[in-house]
Amino acid sequence: MLITVTRTGGFAGGERTASLETECRADGPELERLAELALSDEGPAGQHPVPDGFSYVVRVDGKLVELQDPYLTEDQRQLIDAVLGAAA
User: Fold this and answer.
1) Which of 1, 43, 54, 87 has the highest local Cβ count within 10 Å?
2) What is the Cα 53 distance to its own chain's centre?
């Protein structure tokens, strides 16, 4: 499973994109579980960006979901942290 996260916004207004392939990773099954949850739970309706907050686009094998801080679920936050952290 290919997971790509693009983060925009924040205080500096920059953009960061990272991808990872779960197939050969020891934590692959957990990342795949988190990805499925991220796609199925977009959070509360009526999300509006907050000043200096981050916006995320999570792509999983061609499907995507747009998410906003501070409306992330714990599963979404874990997935985003794992993907962006793997690219650091």
Assistant:
1) 54
2) 14
Is the separation of the CB atoms in 76 and 35 below 8 Å?
Answer: no
> Cβ–Cβ contacts within 10 Å for residue 67, how many?
23
pTM for this model (two decimals): 0.86
Residue 9 φ/ψ region, left for φ over 0, alpha for ψ in the -120 to 50 degree band, beta for the rest:
left
**Residue 59 CA, distance from chain mean position:** 8
Tokens of 53: 């907050």
Q: What digits encode the pLDDT tens for the residues 22-78?
A: 999 999 999 999 999 988 876 555 566 677 889 999 999 889 999 988 889 899 999
